[in-house]
Design a protein that fits this description.
By secondary structure, this protein is an alpha+beta fold. An eight-stranded mixed β-sheet has the order 1-5-6-11-10-9-7-8. It has a five-stranded mixed β-sheet with strand order 13-12-14-15-16, sandwiched between helices. The protein is elongated. It is built from 15 helices and 16 strands. It has two domains: about 240 residues, BirA Bifunctional Protein, domain 2, CATH 3.30.930.10; about 90 residues, 3-Layer(aba) Sandwich (Rossmann fold), CATH 3.40.50. About 35% of the residues are buried. The structure holds adenosine-5'-triphosphate and magnesium ion. Magnesium ion binds next to loops.
């Protein structure tokens, strides 16, 4: 087996549930259920789908995310295009690419846009449960709206997604909220932070010392337990926020309060990219260890201009699909079953053309029917029917066929009896097989 090729470390196959695997990654049925639910929920809020390339210029992320962010400093998959020497990067997040596309197509010319996309992102991190090198995000952006109404809309939309997926807010996932203020307010806070950390320089770890003058805000996000007390005592941005910023924050909170959505204002909530201002939020869970953030986002009013576009306010979020589905699995939430309605058992090869024709009619009528392919004894075919999870077996036996009939045998209800159905009128009984 030594010459067998394997997937790249930290990059996963998403497979049907019938394929046994050692890790706990979600199966493709769960994945599709999530996608279907997302399409339905986001559609109800008027968000439109778009796709942007997975590869972009490295400069886009350096300019968009900030030079001294974790992502740009050490997590990007960057390479040189061997054809022309261009510096390229596999996208580590979706927002920069979407804003690039909107600027390039002058997309906000006719007014604001609500957009979403979904797909793989790449970050060179240490792989562990809930943290991968290729992972997938649902990414939602509301562009050209100054808020706070649309900030609250995004948060409520995530709540309705949770509800649709069976997650209970406040129990399985909790909302954390903060305001990062405007650049001038952050500047004043930053100066105070640097002064505070300089006064306690002996307590800083190496990471913090390195960031002291480049990005002191990120020190607040440290995971080093030895620095927690120091960080707790640091000057808080909240105390530097002016009336307009506070009014924006109150505007978001008023909608959430009226909607009965509980949240915690977490003054230490900062986000990994430099582009955020005003509202930031995260949906977190206690069930996934240190990979507890399933969804994070906020406002980034400066990004359009930073990427060379006309200034435009914007707000959005990214949701980690693997993390979310791991959570759903871990909680054992009920998920819709993906089994076919019926499994076709075909007695002998001579019956095949007639049987397959009937199956075609059933599928045309909207019924999911799986055919037993490859022959074999009736006994082995019934075993497969049972394992498929189908509610019925459709039995194409010689006796039934001779009468122009197929037998419909309930597999999950011991009290129900087998009935005969006419092959000449499949459309007339197909509805009996559709899921209730
Ligand atoms: P973390 O603090 O866990 O590294 P982040 O702040 O870097 O998260 P974002 O850039 O905000 O994450 O991305 C949005 C969401 O994408 C995260 O909340 C998480 O659910 C998911 N995510 C981020 N990085 C990874 C990864 N390496 N593997 C799987 N999911 C990820
Ligand atoms: Mg990260």
């Amino acid at each position: 087996m030594s010459n067998v090729l394997k997937a790249i470390k930290g990059m996963n196959d998403i497979l049907p549930g019938s394929v046994p695997r050692k890790d706990k990654l979600p199966d493709s049925a769960l994945w599709q259920w999530f996608e279907t639910t997302v399409r339905s929920v986001l559609g109800r809020y008027g968000y439109q789908y778009l796709l942007t390339p997975i590869v972009e210029s490295t400069a886009l992320f350096v300019r968009g995310l900030g030079e001294v962010t974790d992502i740009v400093e050490k997590e990007m998959y960057s390479f040189t295009d061997s054809m022309n020497g261009d510096q390229l990067t596999l996208r580590p997040e979706a927002t920069a690419g979407i804003v690039r596309a909107m600027v390039e197509h002058n997309a906000l010319y006719n007014g604001p846009l609500r957009l979403w996309t979904l797909g793989p992102m790449f970050r060179h991190e240490r792989p562990q449960k809930g943290r991968y090198r290729q992972f997938n995000q649902l990414d939602v952006e509301a562009l050209g709206f100054a808020g706070p109404d649309v900030d609250a809309e995004l948060i409520l939309m995530v709540r309705s997604l949770w509800r649709e997926l069976g997650l209970v807010e406040g129990q399985h996932v909790r909302l954390e909220l903060n305001s990062l203020g405007q650049p001038a307010e952050r500047q004043a806070h930053r100066a105070a932070l640097i002064a505070y950390f300089e006064a306690h320089a002996d307590q800083l770890d190496e990471d913090a010392r390195r960031r002291l003058h480049s990005n002191p805000l990120r020190i607040l996000d440290t995971k080093n337990p030895a620095m927690q007390a120091l960080v707790e005592g640091a000057p808080q941005l909240m105390d530097f926020l002016g009336p307009e910023t506070l009014a924006h924050f109150d505007g978001v909170r008023a909608v959430l309060d009226a909607a009965g959505l509980a949240y915690r204002v977490n003054p230490r909530l900062v986000r990994g990219m430099d582009y955020y201002n005003l509202t930031v939020f995260e949906w977190v869970t206690d069930q996934l260890g240190s990979q507890g953030t399933v969804c994070g986002g906020g406002r980034y009013d400066g990004l359009f201009e930073q990427l060379g576009g006309k200034p435009a306010p914007a707000v959005g979020f990214g949701l980690g699909i693997e993390r979310l589905l791991l959570l759903i699995q871990e909680l054992g939430l009920p998920v819709p079953d993906s089994a076919p309605a019926a499994y076709a058992v075909i007695g002998d090869a001579a019956a095949l053309p007639q049987a397959m024709l009937a199956l075609e009619s059933l599928r045309a009528a909207g019924v999911a029917v799986q055919m037993h392919a490859g022959g074999g004894s009736m006994k082995s075919q019934f075993k497969k029917a049972d394992a498929s999870g189908a509610r019925y077996a459709l039995v194409f036996g010689a006796d039934e066929l001779a009468q122009g009939m197929v037998a419909l045998k309930p597999l999950r209800d011991a009290a129900a009896t087998q009935t005969l159905k006419p092959l000449a009128d499949v459309a007339g009984w197909a509805h009996e097989l559709r899921k209730p």
